[in-house]
Amino acid sequence: MGYTLDFSVVWHAMPALLWGCVGTLGLALAGMTLAMMIGVAGVAARDSKAAWLRALVIGFVETVRNTPFLVQIFFLFFALPLVGLKLNPTVTAVIALGVNGGAYAIEIIRGGVQSIHKGQVEAGYALGLHKGQVFRFVVLKPALRAIYPSLTGQFIMLTLTSSICSAVSAYELTSVAQRIESDTFRSFEVYFFVTFLYLAISWLLMLGFAVISHRFFSYPTR
Amino acid sequence: MAPHFGLPEFGFLMRGLQWTMLLTLVAFAGGCTAGLAVALLRTCGHKGVEWVIRIYIGIFQGTPLLLQLFVVYYGLALTGLKLDAFVAVAIGFTVNASAFLGEIWRGAIQAVPRGQTEAAMALGLHYSSRMRDIVLPQAIRISLPATIGYLVQLIKGTSLAAIVGFIELARAGQIVSNQTFQPLLVFGVVGAMYFILCWPLSWWGSRMEARLALASQR
């Protein structure tokens, strides 16, 4: 049997695919922002004095980390309307990505905060820095620097995970690819090319993260 | 009138769970075998080979699992082989596992102190004995927490087989949800089943990680 590969469909669909990339990047960036907010709030709650709040955060983290994203997004897709949030699929996808990424961010950020020794804060005060300065220069920046590799790695994972949001037909690259596939029946060509678009997106993100790291975190520590 | 979620539906989910477990086992076994080859090639010392394996690993780490599954699934269909859906997705997950496990074990092999290899060489052991008797037993210990972590990822990842239409736990959940119109209950039960499968492994992995960290402090 003869099947000839025909990549011209990919070429014709290029504008749509590139817009799909934009959709994926937008989805990922919105998801990362929400994940960071959940992460920071979660760390504060995780170490609070109220035992029930600590248990709630631990339960949330364990649940998210031990169930598939596909099941999470389906659950949210049906659960959000019940609490009165009638959202379009793309917004639902942002929430799902944020909730999922947030659980991982809690663990990562917590590790960073714990890496700051109490003596360092005391040393900051002894040098005459005021509270805001101590937080900014002694706690926040070194903590961010310590967790930067794992945090950005997690962000890239989140971007790749966003492809699963096509299951609720959110606007992103994979759902665009699925539409082109069902129009042209060129499944292999379309998905093969789109896989490399994702590779380009993750390289781009890695490059961006490296530039940020070089700009803000390249100073000697000892 | 739509059926309510009852015992027959639960039984259907349980059969889906069996497929999820079988798919995970097959992919993990295949991934371990191929992953060992990947790790050994990645550390073989030949620059060209190491470079090729690096790209291989980079492609799998830089692209979504869902797309890898699509490419393997539709790519295999093009070859004219009439493969069962299970075999096709199992191959997809195996290839992905080979890259991730290969990278985990590459790190573990390199984490074994260099002196061990040097001592083995001084004793006149050849490559296969050096690896089998000296380096790999230590590397396996080091890599165990990360390997278990990947196993959890793999269990969760098999849910993506649902998107190409293979009926495992997540797809079974979708079907039951469409029949009963009780999506929250059904996906809640499905999520709980995944949790029961994954959580003990996660717990075991992090406990072992803590123990290993303690041991390396001494």
UniProtKB/TrEMBL annotation, chain B:
InterPro entries: AA_ABC_transptr_permease_3TM (IPR010065), ArtM/GltK/GlnP/TcyL/YhdX-like (IPR043429), MetI-like (IPR000515), MetI-like_sf (IPR035906). Keywords: Cell membrane, Membrane, Transmembrane, Transmembrane helix, Transport. Residues 17-202 form the ABC transmembrane type-1 domain. It is a multi-pass membrane protein. CDD domains: TM_PBP2 (cd06261). SUPFAM superfamilies: MetI-like. GO terms for biological process: amino acid transport. Its main location: membrane. GO terms for cellular component: ATP-binding cassette (ABC) transporter complex. It holds the Pfam family BPD_transp_1. It is found in: Cell inner membrane; Cell membrane. It comes from the Bacteria. PANTHER family: BLR6398 PROTEIN, MEMBRANE COMPONENT OF AMINO ACID ABC TRANSPORTER. Belongs to the binding-protein-dependent transport system permease family. HisMQ subfamily. This is Amino acid ABC transporter permease. It comes from Bradyrhizobium zhanjiangense. The lineage of its organism: Bacteria, Pseudomonadati, Pseudomonadota, Alphaproteobacteria, Hyphomicrobiales.
